[in-house]
Every structure is written in structure tokens, then in C-alpha cells.
Amino acid sequence: MGLRGPGAKPAKIAKPDTGQFRLFEADVTVPVPEALEYTGARAENVVSFIESLQITSGAHAGRQLKVRDWQRNIIESIYHEEGGRRVVRNALLTIPRKQGKTALAAALALCHLCGPEAEQRGQVVSAAADRAQAALIYNEMKAFALGNKHLADRLVFREFVKEIEDTQTASTYRALSSDGKKAHGLSPSFIVADELAQWRGRELWDALVTSTGARAEPLFITISTQSADPHSVMSEQVRYGESILAGSHQDPTFHATIYSAPLDADPWDEKTWHACNPALGDFRSLDEFRAAAAQAKRLPAREAAFRLLYLNQPVATEARFINAPDWLACERKLELADMRGRPCWGGLDLSSTTDLTSLVLVFPLNDGTLQTFTWAWVPGDNLDERETRDRVPYPLWARDGHITPTPGRAIDRAFVVHTLGELAAQFDIQAIAYDRWRIEDLMKMLGDEGIDIKLVPWGQGFKDMGPAVDSLESSILNQHLMHDGNPVLTWCASNAVAVQDPAGARKLDKAKSYDRVDALIALVMAVGLYHREPPKEESVYSARGVISFGR
Fold first, then answer.
1. Which residues span the domain enclosing 295?
2. Which end of the chain, N or C, is surrounded by fewer C-beta atoms within 10 Å?
3. Buried b (16+ CB within 10 A) or exposed e, 311-333
4. 10, 167 Cβ separation under 8 angstroms
């Protein structure tokens, strides 16, 4: 192993008397590979370099790597040239676990450090969610290099800081973790983002994306399973890749390879497995896959993890109230203006003055479904802080009109009152259910403005929320409730956790949910109120003490 610190020297592991060398600490010796000459096309040179490396662990340790056809297709797509220059600058590979992601990422990083893609004083970077994950690619690169005399003779390994230096090109490799702030000041020629779905926040991602401007042909590769969070950086990259693959728009500098089972595919069908696991039955064990599937089928608690890790579906592994596939299946974009003349019912969650306030209206349509529309407000003075804390793009949502920032550090309820007044003037609002918490100020403001809306107090305990939660769940599962894809509502739906009392009634629990659920609580109240007071039935608001404001 090379020395650490100043004066470190390359790791020389060859046995000069035999021409063979040791592979790690095991008593295994293999022939020393010959130095390569790269004379083929660019992608072919990359493949040749990878196949000069040796498998370093597992049943096939000591054998040469063999690039499979599906891997070759990925490499050829990324490294193809036009006019003598590589076109692709960003590449996405999302694939289930145990498909050789780490080995491929390490081999490509080594290729850019000291192989055919190396450049003078290049900077190769791998980034992961934490220090332990970041060390995986470093360890794999080190193992590959120590299995190849020609690489070991030129590389210096600095174990403590997880750095590698190439003495011939003065290029360096560094392993970074997303919980650190080490990307500023770098000028990488090659970046691999490992398991991006597990990163916390996007600070490191943004720093890396903007760090390659000084390089002639930088390459940023993301290799990861999918994320259940629709607002994560990983989901953002997948959506962009899918739009390119679908032909929605063109970006020749971005390549996407997505191995994922469709959400409506049969998760227990082996055809589904093989379609999204290209290594299955090769170096990915089919027997282990079958055993995992059998357990997941018998134990519902394991199904979500099986779908995410084995089928690469963007589903949450935790016990969420709403499964992402069920929610996404209910998306239907209609125009709010088309709802004029129709009765509607609402739910209003005021939350606190510094949190998220949400209003949801549900409109019953002629086909028997309910269509939802969502409004949300946040304090405007700290959007950037909120984006960092909640890890959702508040500034983007504000620009796109999905959320209204109000002036100051607290929500100005005059904005809520103004929206309620506009909606009451345009739509047939039958009633709005509200959480009793801190409603008095809003009531007075509505009265002062002469806004005539029927408000129904709605308890947040099991008594009122239980039937409403059941109605919402049934409506989603049967696709009787359709939403317009509002990202604030979708985010809240993805966070929600329901708790149950001894009698079996359920409510959404803000404390146990994964993040904010205010918009979904507003939807629960709106749906509950509609089912309590469906259209064309005699009103009982007067018997229930409905609060009404008017001149």
C-alpha cells in the first residue's frame, strides 16, 4: 500500500521473481495483466480498460471483469463522439440493487483517473450520502488497482482521507459525502453520484453541478435506485430522463438508462423481474430473488422494500397512509375555470402562523368522481431557509403558482381571506370544514370583508377524522377522487401516517408523519364534509350550528 501524506509513493505489489502478485490478503495469485494500448473507438477503449480489471470479491474473485451487452450499450451511449468530442455531459443509470452499480462506478472513475479517459491534472470525484457509502467506491477502486500491477505502480492511496493520486498525470480522486461541504473549490473532470436517492438535501449536488465549467469534456454520472420522494433530486433527474426517452424534448448532452418495473406490473411475475434486472440469472442470483419475493408476498410489511430495491419502483418502504402508485393513478388535470356552476366542498387547515396553511376544494363531477384543487400559503421572508429545512422547492412552487408566499415571517391571513372571497364569488361553495385551532381572527376578517361562506367546525380527533380518513382512502383506492397533480398536495400525501384507536378509527398524525401534511388534512376534511353532506340532500347546517358571515 502506498504511504499516506507528503512523500507518499505508489503501491508496488508485484513479485519480481515470479511476475505474479497477491490479491488482497488471500493466497490467490493471478497473472499480471499487460499494459493496454488504446487504439479503438472511445467507448471501446473504455470497455477494454474495464475488462483489464479483475473481480475483487465474491465467488468470482480473481477473474477478469467481463462487460455484458447491456453494460456495453450504456457505455457506448455515454461515450459516443461527434466531431472528435464526447457529446454526453450528464448520464443517469437507475437500476435495482445488486446489478453491479458500485463496481461499474468504480471502474469508470478509475478509467477517468488513470485509464483512457484520464487527462492531465484531472479531478475525479465520487459523492455519496454519508462517509460509509462514500468509502465503497474508493475501496472498490483501490481493490481494482491493487489487482493490476501497471495501475498499482502509478497510484498513491491516502486511506484516511479516501484519496488517490496518479503520479503520471497528477490527477486525483476524492470521495465526498453529502453531509459535508467539500465540493466548493473543486473543478472535477469526472463525477459519479452514488445512490443519489439517499442524499439529504441538494447542497452538494448543486455545488458539483456547477463545478465543471472549467473542463473541456466533463462527465457527471448518477448511479442509483429510485427515490420514493417525488421532490428529491433523484426523482427530478428520473423525470428529466423519462421526458427525453419519451421524446418530449431533446437534450443530446443527457443520457438516461432506466431499469424499473412499471407501477402497474405484477411484482410476483418473473417476467417483471427479468425486464428490470438485466443481471438476473447472471451475476445476480435468481434463487435469492425468488426467496425475497416469496417473503415479500407473504409478509406485506416487506412488499414496499421489495418493490423499491428489487424492482426499482419509486415507492416508500415505510408505512405511509397513501402508497405512491395509488396516488399517482388518481392524477387528472382539469381547469378550475371549468368547475364554475358546480357545487363544491372545502377543507381549511390554518396550521400555525409560521407553517403551511392549506385550502382544498372538492367538486363532484358527472362521472361520479371528485376533482380536487389546492391552495397553500407560507411566510415569504424565509423561503430559502424553508427549502433547506423541508427539502422541497418552495421558491420554484411559488414561481409556478402552486404556493403563495405572504410578506413577513408569519402568514398574513389577509391573503387567505382574499382568496376565499375570490373563490366564493366564482364558485358554489356549499361549506368549508375547518380546524378549530386559531380560527377566530380569520372569522372576524371574513365578517369585516362581508364574505359569505358557510364554515363547519371539524374536530381533529378520531370521532370526526375517522370517517373522513376512511372516505378518502376508499376514494383513492377506487379512483373516485382525482387530483390535479398539485405538488404541494402530493408532497403532503407522501408524508402522511395514520394512527388508529382501539375501536379501529384512524386519523392523520402530524407528529408521526414524515413531514408536513397540512394540505392532505385539508383534503380529508373536504372529502369528509362532502360525504357527510352530499349534494341534493336537505341541508342540516342549521342544526349543526354552521357559522356564516355576511353583511
1. 270-317
2. C
3. bbbbbbeeebbbbbeebbebeee
4. yes
